[in-house]
Amino acid sequence: MPIIYVMLPTYNEKDNVKIIIPQILSRHPDIKIIAVDDNSPDGTGNILDELAAQSNDRIIVLHRQEKGRGTAGIDGFKKALELGAEYILEMDADGSHDPSYINELLNVVINENYDIAVGSRYIATGGISDRGWWRNITSDIANFYNRFFLRLDHIKDTSGGYKCYKRKVLEAIDLGTLVSRGYSIGAEILYRSNKKGFKIKEIPIIFHNRTTGKSKTNTSEYFRYIWTVFVIWFGNIINIRVIHLFLAGLIGAVVNLLMFLWLVEVKNLNYIISGAIALFLNMLINLFTEKIHASLNRIKSDKSYLKFFISFIATIFMNSFLLWMMIDIAGLSILLSALIVIFIIASLNFVFNRAWIFASPARAEVYYKEVPANFYEDQLNPAEVGSFRAWYHRTRYKKLANFVEKNTTNISDLKIADLGCGSCNWNINHLPVTGVDVNKGMLELGIKTGRLIDFKEAPLDDTGLPDSGYDVVIAAEVLEHMTNPDAFFNEINRILKPGGKFLVTVPYDFFPSPFYVLFNIHCFIKGYIFEDEYYKHRCGHVLHFSKKSLKKVLSENAFKVNKMFIVNSFLIYSSTIKV
Fold first, then answer.
1. Do 430 and 485 touch, CB atoms closer than 8 A?
2. Cα–Cα separations (whole angstroms), residue 535 to 135, 249, 358, 530, 540
3. 59-63/31-37 β-pairing
4. Which residue has the higher pLDDT, 297 or 550?
5. Which residues contact 313 (CB under 8 A, 6 or more apart)?
6. How far is CA 206 from CA 26, 98, 412, 559, in A?
7. Where do the domains of the chain lie, and which CATH numbers do they carry?
8. For the segment 149-196, what is each residue's pLDDT rounded down to a tens digit?
9. Rounded CA gap, 510 and 549, in Å?
């Protein structure tokens, strides 16, 4: 028999515990309850003791003087582990969490090989009943805040308190080191569990507003929640690596400033030459203090000497230009000008060194195999990704659909292959498309939605499609990920009929396009502030295109370019014919 405990924190819930505890015990014969009462003034603790006395040892009551949802949860979980619990549920005692979902939550962790089951208000068929608009808004804000700062994008409901854990989860996250003392404990546990790789599944629940008693949330709780989540995030990014980089940058900046002032004020050297010398010394120091020396092997192996040299020359020119602007044009003092310029140059150096020179490519297929099947569906949902991003993707798919139709005739009679199609969201007119991708879940979703008629789960340079079998081949924002573009083009030439069309789109990933600037800023924030490895490697982009470079690579691979244009300064569209 499994050992199952429900952790039930209580404070002033004397009427509700009389109702909910019998309902919980009736759901499973092996369930026991650990009720954690924070010395409720209304006598909830006494009622719990009475219920425990009648429960045949199925109810354990912890009486505490301390108050707080977070610490109550920690104490309750520790007690459950102490008693040998294999599965631990948590839920609220106010009636908002219906005990009828208990067996579904247990089934997820016992029979479906997941480590955590989350009762979710924000997935299909889930929802909230009879709750005021203000509580709904605060809940939505908390959920968005958690997902943004704690990198829980794949979990729709991060702020709820109805969950079931396997024992190993609570043992692994080290309950004694949790920082939450209030309602943020649920988000913190999800955050730590997610970092350790535990599998999480959401099931839909209907959340009911309490009918008796008073909510414990207030303004101070809201602020504590916001502060605690920030502390959790900040504690994650301030680690040894970040401290090391900060100190390295600080040392380099101080040396840069002192050397510059010494050359200008003591040696009376021209400030442009002084700035170049000081900057060169700064970059040498960074090579030895930022652990960049550990990356020099990568420079040798990927022949990035040219990148480093270009970066150095560009930085020297930028440094000189900024000093001239500050001192000669703006009339600022040498000291103030030096401080401003050093800050700007140090920031730019960090971005270029980490994101360009020393970055190693991440093979995109590895990432896309793991993403959820509905990933691209979510990109269209403002509630998931924000209004601007949802608008961008809707516009992108619509433009791609129009592009395909305008560059083909009798399209319904043609055989079309989309390489790297995902769930083929662009195919809003349900053209007869065969998809190729490494993510089977996305391909199956494409079939289910009618956007694909067939699919192959295969790498894009070895699709398994028939020779000369297709009139049109589409590669929408795929080419930039290809670590072996020659093999990719050979595969396209193999499956495309003579005279067939290859329709390709790529990001306009070349300075000074808006895409180049915004994309690199986005990758820097997500990668180095939020520690997302995929974004550290620029989302697997290993090739970068302007119109000229795209035309060149297409021509070299036996494709004649008919049309090529840039859309919204972000994407390059090209229609080509196989020669």
1. no
2. 34, 22, 14, 9, 8
3. parallel
4. 550
5. none
6. 20, 8, 44, 56
7. 4-235 (3.90.550.10), 240-357 (no CATH), 367-578 (3.40.50.150)
8. 787 878 989 988 999 999 999 999 989 888 888 888 999 999 999 888
9. 10
